[in-house]
Amino acid sequence: MTEYADETAHFAQNWQQQLSGAFTRTEDLCAYLQLPPGQLPAALTGPQSFALRVPLSFAASMEKGNPHDPLLRQVLPIADELLAVPGFTTDPVGDLPALAEIGVLHKYHGRVLLINTGTCAINCRYCFRRNFPYADVQLGKQKQQAALAYIAADPSISEVILSGGDPLLLNDTQLAALCRQLSQIETVKRIRIHSRLPIVLPARITDTLLDILANSGKTLVLVVHCNHPNELNPRTAAALHRLKHHGITVFNQAVLLKGVNDNAAVLCQLSEDLFSLGVIPYYLHLLDKVHGAAHFEVGKAEALQLLHALQTALPGYLVPKLVTEQAGAAFKQYVSELG
Fold first, then answer.
1. End-to-end alpha-carbon separation of the chain, Å?
2. For residues 5 and 53, what is the distance between their CA atoms, to the nearest angstrom?
3. Across-strand partners of 89?
4. pLDDT of residue 1
5. Binding residue ranges for [4Fe-4S] cluster
6. Where on this chain does [4Fe-4S] cluster bind (predicted)?
7. What are the binding residues?
8. Is the link from the previous residue into 165 a cis peptide, with omega within 30 of 0?
9. What angle, 0 to 180 degrees and rounded to 10, lies between the N-to-C axes of helices 172-183 and 141-153?
10. Residue ranges of the chain with per-residue pLDDT less than 50
11. Are the CB atoms for 153 and 123 separated by under 8 Å?
């Protein structure tokens, strides 16, 4: 795909059609953004093991002609990804040692995470699972039954987190069946879904999906992922309003990223805008040290300065918790001057 002559027609398509038209070549994305290749000398234009993938619904919020756009920086492959940086690994949060069954991560007491799919609607360059062996460990139909049996056999598990990849890329039939099966496990109290789709592909929030979520049989929590206020366009706002209208609790977790949102005014605006749409600012993560993402890292001292600025400018309920995830830890760690 090299151009969109009629964006209105594109956004009138269903979510699967919009997803199939996502940018997958750096040259095409740069052409759409009116960026001559010479302006992006560090961009990798050849095939990559972690390929470019950007829906138009996200790219349309980028500023054309701006090679430093904060949304573009999140998705554009650059040469820095090829650098080997000490301390940056392929499994920075210890996912693989936490595999209890195929597709089941059991890191923390009381909750498990299901790897429902290895696919996302957008490939974020800082993704901590960019090297994850999805082909070996994601759930299929038979493996899903073993995963559900594992959950049912452990009465301490009260929350099941659907993750991936992005679990909202499951089709409606698959998602409804999974929710129905989880609803039959009495000891499970909550289903939590982690998804970037309401932000990057808001067309996914259909009437059918809303009905599935609102009638899951369990308390349902949706955690979206939005890093910058520019990601909140009228289409995402409409999707988030619809989720709120259907009584679905929505939290946001962001990642602190150099050159994207390492600015107090940007983070304040993000919290304000999210809350106005019914979304509670939940976590602000320090970067997970995954190989290929070192150029996004913001140091702890700077992160704490930003946190203090947020605490000064915002009411407490709009200040996300500044956290980091450490492989093997029993819970996510709050970042503080004492730690």
1. 48
2. 20
3. 290
4. 43
5. 120, 124, 127
6. 120, 124, 127
7. 120, 124, 127
8. yes
9. 20
10. 1-2
11. no
* pLDDT score, position 6: 78
Nearest residue to 192 via CA among 208, 201, 203, 179: 179
pTM over cut 0.90: yes
The three-state DSSP-derived secondary structure of the chain is: CCCCCCHHHHHCCCHHHHHHCCECCHHHHHHHCCCCHHHCCCECCCCCCCCCCECHHHHCCCCCCCCCCHHHHHHCCEHHHHCCCCCCECCCCCCHHHEEECCEEEEECCEEEEECCCCCCCCCCCCCCCCCCHHHHCCCHHHHHHHHHHHHHCCCCCEEEEECCCHHHCCHHHHHHHHHHHHCCCCCCEEEEEECHHHHCHHHCCHHHHHHHHCCCCEEEEEECCCCHHHCCHHHHHHHHHHHHCCCEEEEEEECCCCCCCCHHHHHHHHHHHHHCCEEEEEEECCCCECCCHHHCCCHHHHHHHHHHHHHHCCHHHCCEEEECCCCCCCCEECCCCC
Residue 34: C-alpha distances to residues 23, 67, 127, 210, 331 (Å) = 14, 9, 26, 37, 44
Look up residue 184 and give its two tokens: 């039959």
